[in-house]
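Field log, afternoon session.

UNIT: design team B
ACTIVITY: writing a sequence onto a fixed backbone
BACKBONE:
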């Protein structure tokens, strides 16, 4: 995909954060947009921010498999084709393995992993039919390294990474006209941490304040990086200097990174 003009782009989680910024940047590039979220108010604000671009909005809960497949068919009918799908919708959970509930674990996996997997599978036939498709799945730097109290989030984001990297290889081997990219944002200045679920012993205010201090990249800058990566057909799109740093440490130290993360987490997450 060398350009985006008149391409039909699908963005989930478009009501705020990276999703909204992506919608605005894609509109500037001339895309027609199919935007979805569970936050209808935020979604309408995003649509207005896209100016004169062709935009249709859809209420979509990505944890609902049947709704995702119905959404894919509806978008294909509304626009006649689908060229780009960005599975961006996500949530956060901070809790230790011992404290997190089964319900919270299921909640984050249904949205952060199954939402991506079903979103990819539902739209894949339409992307192939377009003759020039691209699927972009948003993982995280927590899809590169494990972090204490993020086991559930790690599970989802590592799964997204593995799923997406396998799909990219399949598309290449099968000579299908679909490019595949996995996005690994670092700390982005969005509300994901403020809306995160917390374990019963977590100091929610302290964690959210800590995230705000570490968030190095604006959603607008993140969107620019992601779109540049799409146009370059990058397999792994690292977003933010912290993402590049974490990736480098992981490559250099292998499993040895864990001792560094443990020392940092002992102070920042456990107050020890």
């Amino acid at each position: 995909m060398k350009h985006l003009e008149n391409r039909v782009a699908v963005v989930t989680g478009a009501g705020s954060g990276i999703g909204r910024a992506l919608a605005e940047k894609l509109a500037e590039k001339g895309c027609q947009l199919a935007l979805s979220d569970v936050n209808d108010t935020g979604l309408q604000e995003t649509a207005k921010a896209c100016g004169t671009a062709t935009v249709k909005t859809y209420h979509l809960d990505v944890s609902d498999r049947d709704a995702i497949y119905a959404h894919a068919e509806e978008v294909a009918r509304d626009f006649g084709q689908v060229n780009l799908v960005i599975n961006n919708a996500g949530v956060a959970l901070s809790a230790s393995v011992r404290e997190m509930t089964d319900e919270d674990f299921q909640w984050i996996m249904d949205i952060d992993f199954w939402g991506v997997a079903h979103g990819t599978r539902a739209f894949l036939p339409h992307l192939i039919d377009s003759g020039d498709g691209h699927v972009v799945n948003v993982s995280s730097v927590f899809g590169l390294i494990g972090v204490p109290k993020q086991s559930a989030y790690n599970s989802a984001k590592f799964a997204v990474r593995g799923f997406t990297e396998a799909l990219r290889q399949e598309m290449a081997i099968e000579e299908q006209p679909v490019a595949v990219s996995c996005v690994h944002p670092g700390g982005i200045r969005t509300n994901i941490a403020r809306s995160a679920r917390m374990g019963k012993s977590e100091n929610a205010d302290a964690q959210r304040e800590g995230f705000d201090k570490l968030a190095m990249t604006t959603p607008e800058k993140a969107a620019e990086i992601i779109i540049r990566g799409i146009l370059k057909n990058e397999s792994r799109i690292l977003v933010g200097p912290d993402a590049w740093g974490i990736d480098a440490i992981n490559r250099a130290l292998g499993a040895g990174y864990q001792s560094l993360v443990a020392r940092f987490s002992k102070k920042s997450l456990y107050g020890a």
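LOG NOTE: DSSP finds nine helices and nine strands in the chain.
NEXT ACTIVITY: expression trials, pending approval
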